[in-house]
Specification:
336 residues, alpha/beta, Rossmann fold, seven-stranded parallel beta sheet, 12 helices, globular
Length: 336
């Protein structure tokens, strides 16, 4: 039986590495779109091939995708996972998340005419936060009102993709994704081990989470289930308060920590200072002005009933189990 072929962008990132590993387990022909400067050690598996495409140049990317089609034929699947979640230059969000998506989609439409599925990794940020007053979980039928530059760029990417009517696309909007090797949630766990549980603001946040292997499950279901032209929200199926998140994290670490509430005005000031410093040092801080807007929103809860029914998606890892697995990995690999 002929192996199926998948092209994965963003393959060297946190989520991308798990996608490559799953495709390898499924014995697929794997092509990873990478940069010359990328660390390929994690995805250098037997048979994995690398594509040094240039999405920053529309003409060059089109030529590269045309050449791929000549050499290898049309892939079965294209998973567009590449993107940025933070940047010290606000213009980067639209350039990378939206325009690069449009250029890959244009190449697919022109050269991969028999592609079975194009999966776009979007974000819950493209949907925007839920109602702060009634705290009703976000549903896919809610009108998207993203409140961050990141979220707006992801929503723009979705709209640009939908313009290509000959592409069999599926869009995924995962909530915050965590797991081994992830860095931002790791910083929170590290703070707890030092005895401090930072809490932003004085109002209770309502949150949702997604363990990385459940996200991978959803991606591969999207390749084969009859759901072309649909968009799905993803989480572990549960919703949590910020207090519950802290309690579960401390339990996973088996540590004590003092809960320190930081006024939002102070968080905003710190965000601005860190972003200003980041522009000078050219290092993007985890806490920045765009991230502050996410922190300020109180409702990031999700209703995934539609996803479970249409995509046959059944998350396996709740927050308690997932954080325990993370802590085990972080300790084994000397991160904690």
């Amino acid at each position: 039986m002929k192996k199926e072929t998948v092209v994965i962008t963003g393959a060297t990132g946190f989520i991308g590495g798990f996608l490559v590993e799953e495709a390898f387990k499924r014995d697929m022909n794997i092509f990873c779109v990478v940069r010359k400067s990328s660390d390929l050690s994690r995805i250098s598996l037997p048979g994995v091939r690398f594509l040094y495409f240039h999405p920053e140049d529309a003409i060059q990317l089109d030529a590269e995708m045309a050449q791929f089609s000549i050499e290898y034929g049309c892939p079965d699947y294209f998973i567009h996972n590449a993107g940025i979640t933070k940047s010290v230059r606000t213009s980067d969000f639209d350039r990378v998340n939206a325009q690069h998506t449009a250029r890959f989609a244009a190449g697919v439409a022109r050269h991969f005419s028999s592609l079975k599925r194009f999966v776009l990794m979007s974000s819950l940020a493209a949907q925007g936060p839920g109602n702060d007053q009634n705290l009703k979980p976000i549903t896919i039928s809610d009108y998207p009102i993203p409140n961050t530059l990141y979220g707006k760029s992801k929503l723009t990417a979705e709209k640009l993709l939908k313009q290509f009517t000959n592409i069999p696309w599926v869009i995924l909007r995962p909530t915050g994704v965590y797991g081994p090797r992830e860095h931002d949630y790791y910083l929170y766990l590290k703070s707890l081990t030092r005895g401090i549980e930072p809490v932003m603001g004085f109002k209770e946040q309502h949150l949702s989470f997604l363990y990385v292997t459940d996200l991978v499950q959803a991606v591969f279901l999207s390749l084969t289930e009859p759901v072309v032209g649909e968009t799905f929200l993803l989480s572990d199926g549960n919703n949590y308060t910020g207090t519950e998140y802290g309690d579960i994290a401390r339990e996973a670490l088996n540590c004590k920590a003092i809960r320190v509430r930081i006024p939002l005005q102070v968080v905003r000031l710190i965000s601005s200072l860190l972003e200003y410093t980041g522009r000078i040092t050219k290092n993007t801080p985890t806490l920045n002005n765009d991230k502050f807007l996410s922190i300020k929103a109180l409702n990031w809860t999700v209703d995934i009933n539609e996803t479970q029914m249409r995509l046959k998606y059944h998350p396996q890892v709740d927050l308690r189990t997932g954080l325990r697995l993370c802590v085990e990995w972080y300790r084994k690999n000397k991160w904690l």
